[in-house]
Amino acid sequence: MAYEVPGTKAFTGIMNSGNVSFNLKKSVAKSWTYTSGNNLIGNPYPSAIDWHLADRSQFQDNFAYFYDVNTYAPIDGGEAGAYIAPNQGFFVISAVDNLNFTFTDATRVHGGTFYKTTATDDKFVIGLSNENNSDNTTIRYREQSNPQRDRMDALKFFSFSAEMPQVYTRTTNGINVAVNSIPGNGEVLSIPLSIKVPANGTMTISLEDTEGAFASQAIYLHDQLTGIDHNLSINPIYSFTATQGDDETRFTLLFSPVGIDNPTANEAVQVYAHSGMVYLNGAPAGAEVRLADITGRVVKQGRTGGDSLTTLNVSNLPHGMYVVTIISGKELLSRKIIL
Predict the structure, then answer these.
(1) Following CA atoms 53, 54, 57, 61 in sequence, which dihedral angle do they give, to the nearest 10 degrees?
(2) Is the pTM higher than 0.85?
(3) Per residue in 115-170, pLDDT tens?
């Protein structure tokens, strides 16, 4: 609920306690950009609740989605301390139709704020901004997550404001997400970064936060239009000229797996593709080689040989853009190729 004029509001009558149920609906997808199963519910109590303590098994993911000043803020019920303020409304994505979800007194807590994000985490946050507005997206490690969308990923809810820039990533099965949880085993080394540009002008992509394992890893932004590879870990700001309706697939995030803290831009290493083969020339012997598609899914792995030229047979892969990553000791090199 929102009011044009801020102020103190008074509630009268008997406040809710005990079980309070909402009937969930899962209709077919609508003509707008949201998935089926969206339900607007809210904390029915005069006290805060911890969404982590709720039974979320009827929902497609663990998140509660708040509309927060022209953008949506997902709160992760998979983590303790996911506080929701008294009478606060939020969206959930139902996996069931015409069944009840029940709030119970067991979820109630005293204190808490509007919402609370988790403490130190293995994650990094990418922001997109213009002169007036900004948006952000989160990539994080979760041991039990999959590269495809799962319960640990928060869907991207787009703002209804035409003035808002939008930034998000995609899972390997092509789902737009605001929080992308990936396994920390090196299976994913690149993630497409998608943007929506509200108007022509200068925009900025920034590395807003790094925590845990990502605090010591190099994170690169590849600009497909200009060919620039920008090290966000050294310079967290990348400004570029954007046009309204800019290509949503223009950017890719590249990052090293855990334990690799010295990515290199060694120009002596040559990587190219021809006639169903990928050729690597000048790479260190015994280096690990990973080939990932544009969704970040690793589709081929191998090691460099003892001589200067290494080949990978990729004749069985579909045509398109791929990222070749070479890992040697604590050094990492990435190159984009077209098959």
Answers:
(1) -80
(2) no
(3) 444 445 889 999 999 988 999 999 999 988 888 899 999 999 998 888 899 999 98
* Lowest model confidence (mean pLDDT) among 89-103, 148-162, 268-282, 325-339: 325-339
3-state SS, one letter per residue, for 294-312: CCCEEEEEEECCCCCEEEE
pLDDT of 92 reads: 96
Edge-to-edge strand ranges of the sheet holding 38-42 = 38-42, 89-93, 63-67, 72-76
Asked if residues 179 and 63 have their Cβ atoms less than 8 Å apart, the reply is yes
Count, residues in the chain = 339
d(CA 260, CA 252): 19
Helix (H, G, I), strand (E, B) or coil at 192: strand
Mean pLDDT of 321-335: 78
Backbone angles phi, psi at 254, to 5 degrees: -120, 130
Provide the edge-to-edge strand list for the sheet that holds 83-84: 83-84, 48-50, 108-109
* Domains of the chain, earliest start first: 20-109 (no CATH), 123-260 (no CATH), 270-338 (2.60.40.3080)
Nearest to 321 by CA among 289, 301, 297: 297
147: Cα within 13 Å, side-chain hemisphere = 19
Helix (H, G, I), strand (E, B) or coil at 80: coil
pLDDT, greater one: 284 or 241: 241
Encode 121-139: b = buried (16+ Cβ within 10 Å), e = exposed.
bbbbbbbbbbeebbbbbbb
